[in-house]
Design a protein that fits this description.
By secondary structure, the protein is α/β, with parallel strands linked by helices. The chain is built from 11 helices and 8 strands. The chain folds into 2 domains: 4-103 and 231-240, 3-Layer(aba) Sandwich (Rossmann fold), CATH 3.40.50; 105-228, Rossmann fold (3-Layer(aba) Sandwich). It is 49% helix and 12% strand. Strand 3, helix 4 and strand 4 form a beta-alpha-beta unit.
């Protein structure tokens, strides 16, 4: 079994779920008392978010490279970044370390395509929804990607940072996510990816079942027809390495 180098803490709420699902998938595959071999570096998200807010992505890349090198020296075989937004710096990161970075968009695309879906709705931080570092990867995998309308992008981003990252779940926000997901379904999205909603968080927002498939970061709280489809697929990819 290879050793996962996981960068977490962005926020820690979602990192808990990454850790849980990686281990559950290992048990599912190997049985018994097996668990994942994981080296984890948990960042102080406030420091990272401050860099993001001032658009200092070079500082974010430097931080991720330093952490990845530490994990590499400690014995990690590859890097997993337990959030979507920080994948923005993966191209820079890959040039600075000697082990591969397992990209979350690749696992997401594989999970979606196994259901025969070719058009998906992407939710996330404003960076994830308005920039191309996730969308281009999904498009390259043969998927068509749509995002919410501009005003709804702001709503989703605010809920992620002001509620989800702090572990709060407010009913008005839940209803807004349901509305936004339904609107993307009306625009033809066969799969709505609250993963692609940034952190495992958006699934909590969605609440009740929607008519479109959703590929979330964690076992949904009775709300998602396919559970943590995308992250489970992430774990399955890891097991093959």
């Amino acid at each position: 079994m290879k050793t996962i180098g996981m960068i977490g803490g962005m926020s820690w709420e979602s990192t808990v779920t990454y850790y849980e699902i990686l281990n559950r998938e290992t048990v599912r595959a190997l049985g018994g008392l097996h668990s994942s071999k994981i080296l984890m570096y948990n960042v102080d998200f406030a420091e990272i978010e401050e860099c993001m807010s001032r658009d200092d992505w070079a500082a974010v890349a430097d931080s991720m490279a330093d952490i990845s090198l530490r994990l590499e020296k400690a014995g990690a075989d590859f890097i997993v970044i337990a959030t979507n937004t920080i994948h923005k710096v993966v191209p820079d990161l890959e040039k600075r370390i000697g082990i591969p970075v397992l990209h979350i968009a690749d696992a997401a695309a594989d999970a979606v395509k196994t259901k025969g879906i070719r058009k998906i709705g992407l939710l996330g931080t404003k960076y994830t929804m308005t920039q191309d570092f996730i969308k281009d990867r999904l498009t390259a995998a043969g998927l068509e990607v749509i995002v919410p309308e501009e005003k709804d992008i702001g709503i989703v981003n605010d809920v992620i940072f002001n509620e989800l990252c702090t572990g709060r779940i407010l009913d008005p926000s839940r209803r807004e996510f349901q509305r936004i997901i339904s609107a993307m379904k009306d625009r033809g999205a066969g799969g709505c990816d609250p993963w692609l909603h940034g952190d495992r968080h958006a699934d909590k927002r969605g609440g009740q079942r929607t008519a479109c498939f959703r590929y979330d970061r964690h076992p949904c709280t009775g709300s998602c027809p396919h559970g943590a489809g995308r992250l489970n697929n992430y774990a399955k990819v890891i097991q093959k390495l």
